[in-house]
Amino acid sequence: MSFKKKATLALTAIASTAIFSIASNAQAEASPQVKFATSAGEFVVELYPDKAPKTVENFLQYVRDKHYDGTIFHRVIPNFMIQGGGFDMKYAQKATRAPVVHEGRQALEKGGPRNVSGTLSMARTNDPQSATAQFFINVNDNSFLNPSARDYGYTVFGQVVSGMATIDKIKSTPTGSGGPFPSDVPKTPILINSATLVK
Question: How high is the pLDDT of residue 30?
């Protein structure tokens, strides 16, 4: 092989590596991570703005505003999910901004994850367009929560990337009644001390 051909191949390889590196960096920058420090331990969630941009920005704004600091996981069902982000230790509901538009179907169309164990979704009322600050983490494969042509379902916008042991600890905590809730409330409050953007 001539020197010229070898040089061309080397340059092509370098260019390909550079392009791959740029793409990888762009993907990393596009997937912010938030660390939750709780009374049960820490966990980190990675968010997918390329799949659910409005949902992710809504969530990140609550993180920036320190909305989640001092809130509790008020609903824990061990074979289903853990839910938090809306109530303080005295079960007072925190004020929120206007609801975020539902992006469940669009996220799936873009290849986003479904409601499987370890994924992060927006909580809402029966109104699909009612999600504000509360979120839940699936601790089971909950296919019935997935959006479909007939059902809005629930928007998945991230997943736990470290600290699943903390999630397992939370889902296993004994529950009962608490505040305005007749069941599924941790008997020992699980407090979110802080939620911080780490990436």
Answer: 72
